[in-house]
Specification:
Layout lengths: L2 H15 L3 E4 L1 H7 L4 H11 L6 E6 L5 E6 L4 H11 L6 H13 L5 H11 L9 H21 L2
Antiparallel strand pairs: 1-3, 2-3
Length: 152
């Protein structure tokens, strides 16, 4: 297990014990895990983004902090938020994060998750020319999400 995994696990434990909100100091965390502060930035940017279901506030300076909140939304609201968050293009790693977040929140079931992964994967879209691949993925994902909203 790498340092990033250990740091992410520590933050998740804090979120679990603090009812979904954790306040951290970058330098203290870096000291605790014997890494540079930019490693903390990397973990937060890649694992605690809105696509993963978190909101991050940051204040720099002497009394600076990083506050991470786990966002819990009604499943339908989360699907609508996701539709609105998807731009005109969508990368494979980002769509995987969206799908994982939707599954974790109970907005979609495992079967829907698997179908989305299959339909939006790199191998499925490999025949599409690169400039169109990410815009095609975004359009397909949005339509899938609209169908999820229409199910009820």
């Amino acid at each position: 297990m790498g340092v990033s995994d250990i740091i992410a696990g520590f933050i998740i434990e804090m979120l679990d014990s603090e009812d979904g909100c954790a306040e951290l100091q970058r330098t203290e965390l870096a000291s605790k895990f014997k890494c540079v502060p930019s490693q903390i930035n990397y973990v937060i940017a890649t694992r605690f983004s809105p696509e993963h279901g978190y909101m991050v506030e940051s204040r720099r300076g002497g009394g600076g902090y990083i506050r991470i909140r786990r966002v819990r939304q009604d499943p339908k609201q989360l699907v609508m938020h996701t539709v609105n968050a998807v731009g005109d293009e969508l990368s494979w790693p980002l769509v995987k994060a969206f799908i994982c977040n939707l599954l974790d929140a109970g907005a979609i079931d495992i079967q829907t998750s698997r179908l989305m992964h299959a339909a939006l994967s790199e191998s499925t879209l490999r025949a599409a020319p690169f400039p169109l691949k990410e815009s095609l993925r975004a359009a397909i994902f949005k339509q899938m999400l609209v169908q999820v909203l229409c199910e009820d």
